[in-house]
Amino acid sequence: MDRYYPRSRRMASVVAVAAAATLILAGCSSSSGGKEAEESAEGASAGKANTPRMTVALVTHQSPGDTFWDIVRKGAEAAAAKDNIKLDYSSDPNAGNQATLVQSAIDKKVDGIAVTLAKPDALKDVISKAKAANIPVVGLNSGVSEWQKLGLMEFFGQDETVAGEALGKRLNEAGAKKAVCVVQEQGNIGLTQRCDGVKKTFEGSIENLNVNGTDMPSVKSTITAKLKTDSDIDYVVALGAPFALTAVQSVGEAGSKAKVATFDLNKELTGAIDKGDIEFAVDQQPYLQGYLAIDSLWLYKNNGNYMGGGEAPVLTGPAFVDKTNVETIDKFAAKGTR
Amino acid sequence: MTQQAEPAVTTPPAPGPSKETDGRTQQRPLALRLLARPEVGVFLGAVAVLVFFLITAPPVRDGSSMANILYQSSTIGIMALPVALLMIGGEFDLSAGVAVITSALTASMLSYQLTMNVWVGVIAALVVSLAIGMFNGWLLVKTGLPSFLVTLGTFLILQGVNLAVTKLVTGNVATDNISDMDGFDQAKALFASSFEIGGVNVKITVVWWLVFAALATWVLLRTKYGNWIFAVGGNKGSARAVGVPVTFTKISLFMLVGFGAWFVGMHNLFSFNTVQSGEGVGQELIYIAAAVIGGCLLTGGAGSAIGPVFGAFMFGMVQQGIVYAGWNPDWFKAFLGVMLLGAVIINLWVQRTATRR
Hints:
heterodimer, A: alpha/beta, CATH 3.40.50.2300, 2 domains, 6-stranded mixed β-sheet, 46% helix, B: mainly alpha, ABC transporter involved in vitamin B12 uptake, BtuC, two-stranded antiparallel sheet, globular, cell membrane (chain B), membrane (chain B), transmembrane helix (chain B)
């Protein structure tokens, strides 16, 4: 018996340490917020098709870790699950690399390709190769003015310029005089088009402000600096949800009277609209873009359908989210699908 | 730059104004000796940039604008300090930018998913950050690979892990809001609060930045560990020969960068409540730039802790000064580059003039 003693003592100390750790952790648990407070979040599901299994590639120009693209992908996954589709998702912000990803989808002999056209010229050749291989190709998100020229079947997205124009009109209605358009990625064409669109319809004056989007403290300082130099600025237009939320802090810090509006949503942002920190958001419904692109390929394969009749793009935006309708959208945003 | 190449064990560059009976330098006037110090050039460069913007951008003259510039400088500067020490020790760290985000993500997700007091996450993040530093240092010492390769590897690993784990755990690519959880307010007070001085709102990070800079200066100039840092950066072989614990020094320097990443990561988390997993990429170069502008040699063995403070300030000053001056934003990055190069050249010129003859 004696020789078991050390072992049992060791056991006892292990148990003691574990118990202590549990106690410490239990003592540290948060009484508010956290996972326990989160509702069980399940994505939308609509049964499942009994059509034969098919494979579809979705190739985007997403840069890693962006909340927007995550929502596009969720929409695509929901449609794939419903349509008995195996979804191959891949992305690369570099246009040449994106073309290579499309080529590998062709090599894999997928049943359909959905692609974003951020830089249409780079994708021209590979898209004609897909057509030669009899693989249907649809476009989404960017390239609303190019998709037909490249011979895509259908297109799902928002015209960035049109969205900007809509936001500009909205600023006029709000009586804005002077706005600043915060660009988180200098040289990104979609972002530039949005600011240009606002400029087109906005009757006041607007100027662009470049910020370093990968460093939030710097985003905050730069917007604060801008608001300080010009107390006449009465609207800050952000081009992405996280930057809009940071802009709210900057407005407070600069002691400015400016209001904040933005493009795109996420789950924090709907809360901020509800609280009145942010006036409104232009939503291009990324979930819908991903969902429809995949679903359209299923419809084409199984029923020969063309959405938009192969002539017109299917517009998913601009839809406005403000205090009047944020309540209905909030619960979907909490799930990360709006 | 041959004057830095001598074995640094017994003569760390310019350890203080006291010993000067070497016989070669004693005749040089005080002003020139002062100018030869690595931080003086950057100090003059920073003053030049400051004066330039005080003249061209009237809003900069306002106290609250200066507080805003100092805030931006402090978040760069807190990281630039350990990065500078590491660089004096002869290595550099490309993973420093994404490591900040890794730390913030760890703290946020751990406390949220387990519904714990946020301090549990904060402590866990510290452990993770130090472990990343230790891994970098250990792998470097163990394999003898250059720090460029080792930390480029960690940079890519962390970038991928940040994204994949966040997506796996939260189902999204950003973390959940933790601002309503227990302990948040205390942590915010420590990492991301602000206070008023004469009607100007000053961020707590500015205070921490100066405290850390003072601490780093003391360590570098007055402790044995400080001598070790100069020694391993100057000549590893001779440092080892005279009994400097090279392995310990290198690994601990990487862990120091881990500590800095943790601190800035916590600031990001507690001032913005959520973190996007794609942030931080590219920041490592800004930290390194601040250290180099601050007079730290890319080859190691020379530099100071106060230099990077001015380096970071210069960066913050130029970045926000361009906005205060209201210049065309399309030229933003080009302006930034020109101003920085200009400042570095002034820095270099001052040092050359001072050390000549």
